[in-house]
Give the backbone structure.
Amino acid sequence: MTGSILNYGSSDNDSGADNLRTSFRKLDSAAQLSVISAVTTAQPGSPTAADLYILPTGKSGAAWTGFSVGNIAMYHDSAWIQITPVEGWRAWIKDEDRVMVYNGAAWQYAPGTIVIDEFTSSGTWTKRTGLVSASPLVIGGGGGGGGGAKVAAATGASGGGGGAGAGLELNNFPAASLGATEVVTVAAAGGGGAGATSLGAGTNGTAGGNSSFGTSGAAVFLRAGGGGGGEGGEASAASGGGGGGTPRGAGNSGSGGSGGTTNVGGGAGGSGVSGTASTAIGCGSGGGGCSSVGVAGESGVAVAGAGCGGGAGGGFDASNNPAAGGIGRAKHVSNDKAGAAAGAAGSNGAGYVDNDAGGGGAGGGASVGANGGAGGTGGAYGGGGGGGACSQSANGGAGGAGGAGLVRVINYF
């Protein structure tokens, strides 16, 4: 009987009772097939009667090693047996809450299934059997905020510039255009600059890295540039925010009191003033700069999902008045982070919401007799870090780190 899982015996000497019992157990399992996992490779050490697994490539164990990939392993009468599936069988996969179908050669997800692969570190994407298309989304790393200066009394000074938001790119590829595997690179976040511990400027924040899916120069390749780092605050001079990342590459970091520049569409960092908004899809906004008399600029707003920059740290005017930090913007106004009051640390940026990358961290507030407030961390993923604030008599605040990058692949079956 073709495709049968029942053992009818082949001679009068067959043990009919044992065959019948095992056959009914197989039939009971297959009638409403529900397996624990289709990816477990190691044979379980303490199984329960009637446990079922679809055997994957790389399976191991005393019994499983001798079984065929794609067969169903069933624990029955204190031993493992295998069941050979038939084309058209459907199985509920308990550890994924999804249905798979056997196509006669391999198991694949049922038509209409959507599976999301999320990478927070670099790795390899693998194409599954039955894939129709895939939509990778890549977000670069946010730039780190600059550290705050330490200055003498009656000295105007800037807080650290905000780091910029990262770029974002999204596309859909038919399965036929994708390799069996694709390289995934997830960007590191830009580091926040250290605050000054002796009279002088804070340290510059560093730029975030680039994230990508696929191989550069190949038919399938997406890239999202990191945000530029914010410049460290200093006495009697402005600080610049980082420039926004874009799908074409990373933004530049602030320096020399000027905001970082960027590729077409990205928001430039503020040159002693607020950062600018991005103007094109997938481009990050600029980080806020701080003026030479301590006024902290806010970050710009990114359009269409890219990362937002961080606000600048607060500084001082020549009359020893400490300033609050700059606002860290987000795509949705309700998620903006207000700049910190004098001496306080900036809030961390808003996280990934509704397919929008992270918001910017708020700038720290300046302080006369205590450490300057630290900048807030950029939101995950790709938000710029807030700038650290200035201090008199104590240490400058540290700039906030940017938000790390992300690669998320939506697989359609």
In short: Residues 26 and 381 are 48 Å apart (CA to CA). The helical segments are 16-31. The first strand starts at residue 34 and ends at 35.
